[in-house]
Amino acid sequence: MFNKERLLSISELDEAKTKQMNDSQLKAFTAVANSLEENLPTMAENAKTAMKAKDIEELAKLLTEICDMLQQLYAERLANECLNKIKTMSSAQYEDIQAYVIDFLKNVSALSIDLQMAEFKDTPAPPVVSIDGTATKNTILAVDDRHFFLQSIKNMLQDTGYKVTCVNSGEAALNYLKNHRSDLFLLDIDMPTMDGYELAQKIRKLGQPAPIIFLTGNSQKKSVVRALQAGGNDFIVKPVTKDQLLERIGRYIQPDSTED
């Protein structure tokens, strides 16, 4: 069963309702959260199939089922926004429907991961602090085998006060760490030769304490547990927007506001 204090850190949940849960309600909340975690991958795939077939009726049915679980989890803003979209689907442009559903599923997947983190993770990683006690560290090492994604990360963090180094493999990351430090790691999970889990373990064996944020499209519980066991601290669900990227990174380190 969840610890309520951990749930209060999830921005998508209604804070007042979350605080007011008694033990019985918390038990029911846990059951719905577990159901979402277990069934979301299948529901998301079914929604994508319905989109491909342009079956608006089936798509609306699937989204409504997800929204019902979101409402039981007090994620009412996310649920109500989707329910309002469902009402207009019959008259909306298909391209607009498709774009919205993809974004909605990504947001629900991110919420599912946050819930799992609240269930399995004891405490968040502390902010990275320098030797003199100031919290001004802002260097990031991003690791992904796809050049276009690394370039996207670099573009989103340009002129934000963060210093980003990008490498395209776990081996390259370990070579970089022989002579450099990083205040935060962004690690893709699915990479050839050395995946993100193995890389995270090796980073921890090097004595690197900096937070590790995994980049993933997989919200399944076994993946979240494995990532935490490997030394991970958080997740970003792909594809990611600039605001989402900055919000996650900002949980652990802050940009240098003096940079141009």
Notes on the structure:
The structure is a single chain. This protein is an alpha/beta fold and 260 residues long. The protein has two domains: 4-120, Four Helix Bundle (Hemerythrin (Met), subunit A), CATH 1.20.120; 139-250, 3-Layer(aba) Sandwich (Rossmann fold), CATH 3.40.50. It is 55% helix and 9% strand. It has a five-stranded parallel β-sheet with strand order 2-1-3-4-5, with helices on both faces. α3 (23-52) runs antiparallel to α4 and α8 packs parallel to α9. The chain is globular, with a radius of gyration of 19 Å.
Task: Give the helix level as a range of percent.
Answer: 40-55%
The strand count comes to 5
Helix and strand pattern: HHHHHHEHEHEHEHEH
How many domains? The number is 2
Q: Which descriptor suits the 3D outline?
A: globular
Major sheet attributes: 5 strands, parallel
Helix/sheet category? alpha/beta
Could you give the distance between the termini? Answer: 47 Å
CATH class placement of the largest domain: Mainly Alpha
Residues in β-strands, percent? 5-15%
Task: Give the topology, please.
Blueprint: H1 4-7, H2 15-20, H3 23-52, H4 56-72, H5 76-87, H6 94-120, E1 139-143, H7 147-157, E2 163-167, H8 170-176, E3 184-188, H9 196-205, E4 212-216, H10 221-229, E5 234-237, H11 242-250
Parallel strand pairs: 1-2, 1-3, 3-4, 4-5
Write out key terms for the chains shown.
5 strands; 11 helices; alpha/beta; 9% strand; Four Helix Bundle (Hemerythrin (Met), subunit A); single chain; 260 residues
Summary of the model, kept short:
The chain has 260 residues and is α/β, with parallel strands linked by helices.
